[in-house]
Design brief:
Shape: globular
Strand content: 25-35%
Structural class: alpha+beta
Order of helices and strands: EHEEEHEHEEE
Largest sheet: 8 strands, mixed
Distance between the termini: 31 Å
Number of strands: 8
Helix content: 25-40%
Radius of gyration: 14 Å
Number of helices: 3
């Protein structure tokens, strides 16, 4: 497994990286999950973007969101692995890196996520704890989760 990663502020992304990450987000969140929503929410420009590659192929992505933009706490959002890369542990690698870079770039403090409920066990295994009630976001059940450490 030839894995590499990079994390960049929005204005550091190449047009090819931006295209690839938007394509992956659209492939999974819009097409695969059959969810019609506006992915470009004017938050990307204020975030850092973590890209996980297997060789030259983008297989995972997350958005590191500073405090005050989505929640009062820093956040990890738009977490996605490519359909071709599933079952290889890329999701855990991606989230471990996301947590690490949140701490490095955004500082110490709690991390809040809006998790799809089917992934509750996965995020719990990474130290996130449910915080609130289940809610509907674009037709998909979500729950906020918090990691304090």
């Amino acid at each position: 497994m030839n894995l590499s990663h990079t994390v960049k502020a929005f204005d550091e992304l190449t047009i090819y990286e931006l295209y690839d990450l938007l394509k992956l987000r659209s492939e999974v969140f819009v097409v695969e999950q059959n969810c019609v929503f506006l992915d470009q929410d004017d938050k990307d420009q204020k975030c850092h973007h973590l890209m996980l590659y297997e060789g030259e192929q983008l297989v995972g992505y997350s958005r590191l969101v500073p405090p005050g933009l989505s929640y009062s706490e820093m956040s990890i959002g738009r977490v996605v692995t490519s359909p071709a890369g599933r079952g290889k542990g890329f999701g855990r690698i991606l989230m471990d890196l996301s947590i690490q870079y949140c701490r490095q770039i955004l500082g110490e403090g709690p991390i809040r996520i809006g998790a799809q409920t089917y992934a509750l066990g996965f995020y719990s295994s990474l130290g996130f704890v449910s915080d609130g009630e289940v809610y509907d976001e674009d037709g998909i059940e979500h729950i906020e989760m918090l990691r304090n450490d």
